[in-house]
Amino acid sequence: MTNRYPLWKNLLILTVVLCGFYYAAPNLYAPDPALQIAGASSSQQIDERVLAKAGTALTEAGIGFFGEELQNQGKSALLRLDDRAQQLRAQAVLARELGDGFIVALNLAPTTPDWLMDGGATPMKLGLDLSGGVHFKLEVDVAAATERKLDQYETGIQKRLREERIRGRISLDGQQVAMQFRTEADREAARREVSDLYPELFLDRVDEGEIWSLYAEVTEQTIDEVVDYAVAQNLTTIRNRVNELGVSEPLVQRQGSNRIVVELPGIQDTAEAKRILGKVANLEFRLVAEANAPISERQRFEYRSADRGGMTEWLERDVIITGESVSNAQAGFDQNGQPNVMISLDGEGGMLMSRATRANVKRRMGVLFIERKYRTRYEQDESGEEVAVRIPYDEKKLLTAPVIQSALGAQFQITGLDNPAESSELALMLRAGALAAPITFVEERTVGPSLGAENIRLGMKSVQVGLALVVVFMILYYRVFGIAAVIALSGNLVLLVGIMSLLGATLTLPGIAGIVLTVGMAVDANVLIFARIREEIRSGSPPQTAITQGFDRAIVTILDANITTLIVAIILYAIGTGPIKGFAVTLSVGIITSMFSSIMGTRALINLLYGGRRVKSLAIGGIGNTRSNTEGAPA
């Protein structure tokens, strides 16, 4: 039969449209403001007792909440709030009530019904310029960065003088390394070695009786360079960690001399993000002190202790390598089914590890995990208001201390981890890189549209007005065919939203511009088809033949135009960033859905109206009452 789709094709089109409605439906449900509670450690569990304690604290503070629930198999908990304006106050209440062992983060909880969630339907991610997200302002600890650099100077000088057999007493004195010698010759030899090793240090010689002193002072210029490097390195590390979180179109940028701003649009697990971004942790590989080493020797070489399973191990102060030498790390399991982390070192790290282990076979090597944590103390300020003061401290944990059986290379494994969650988090930290200095969360909030509610309203209005004008034009100019085009266009928008939701794409304000362009392109394809049908009728073709020829001959032009535009959109996505990528994603998906709706959707509707029957005329505007010379003849 002329202009009749087979049943399977009609069912296919209907199925695609229904799926589009199903996956687009979650976008009708606005999220609730919420607080998310998680443990400071990835292995920490949240139980009903913690949830009840949090609920009691909010109730006593007069903050309304509902829908409290445990998530991720007890790894976190969620409490929905009645009012978004109460989020920051509620966070402060829970942070004080639960203490330093928990992370309380702002969140937006989805309200999608279970019958949609069960099918994998989730709301489309919206960028910061549309719905906002989570905003963190991080401050780099300048004092800690300077102290770490001074420790490196002290350790480096001690090592060089020991290698050159120059005996002296070395210690830190403020922002300088103090060295004391018994002879002037030793001091002069040390001055030459230190000047060669660290030319940026200012060296000052002081005679104090029988003590010949040398002071290596860190200049202000060097401190500024250290701080600038620490902030730049932390910026790179945080970007890597954000990438590991899989957040779409995040914003990570420097603000001022020592602050970093992180904005994460549409993120769901904000507690996990806060823990990963703020974790200051590193690995150190040190040799374990020999059991028969005398106490005096331990003091002379400044051995350090670390706790391991309730026992104390003595580690040498000299560090073989740190986590900064790790080029890749993957969590997994060893031959005994225990969690481990496979480590790959860079060239220099592999050389240092090989050299140290080759010279110390049958000795033990400790893997020390150092994490910066904070204790919170509440004090009253000058105005009498209570403020939280965070006091930093380092928590050290000896992961493992195996015997070196043979020289290690650039690849080996770390065992002794408590659970797979701990190994995954450690691997992520090592892959992303260590922070050059500790950071502190000085501000956290959920943010609204960055361009303002008025711009967002105008952006949405542009879509509505553009769609309305297209609808009016198509119906007035093409009549029945115009109505079919409008119905197909509506289905196109539903498919566009559904596919973007299914793919997890992020819709931004430039993405709305892509939707407006998609509306025009979808109608443009129908205009080409309808114009071709009118030409066929003017040339004397029967109505059924005109419909067939109009669709078949216009398809080539439509494909050419859309495929070239799709190629441009792919290039924009490949080389663009931020808003340009958002526009490219929307445009690419819109091109695919518009071709489907214009070619197959509109054709299916026209077939339902005219297909398989004798037609004397077509209501296609201007020629709606024109009869062809071969009226109703079958094609």
Written overview of the protein:
Strand 19 and strand 20 form a beta hairpin. Strands 2-3-1-4 form a 4-stranded antiparallel beta sheet, sandwiched between helices. The protein has a 4-stranded antiparallel beta sheet with strand order 11-12-6-22, covered by helices on one side. The chain has 4 domains: about 5-25 and about 450-610, Multidrug efflux transporter AcrB transmembrane domain (Multidrug efflux transporter AcrB transmembrane fold, Up-down Bundle), CATH 1.20.1640.10; about 30-110, Alpha-Beta Plaits (2-Layer Sandwich), CATH 3.30.70.260; about 145-220, 2-Layer Sandwich (Hypothetical Protein, Haloacid Dehalogenase-like Hydrolase, Chain: A, domain 2); about 280-435, Gyrase A, domain 2, CATH 3.30.1360.200. Helix 5 (about 140-165) crosses helix 7 (about 220-245). It is of the alpha+beta class and about 625 residues long. The chain has 15 helices and 23 strands. The chain is elongated and about 120 Å long. The longest helix has about 50 residues, at about 455-505.
Brief characterization of the structure:
The protein has 635 residues and is of the alpha+beta class. Helix content is 46%, strand content 25%. The strands form seven sheets. It has a four-stranded antiparallel β-sheet, sandwiched between helices. A four-stranded antiparallel β-sheet has the order 11-12-6-22, covered by helices on one side. It has a four-stranded antiparallel β-sheet with strand order 7-8-10-9, covered by helices on one side.
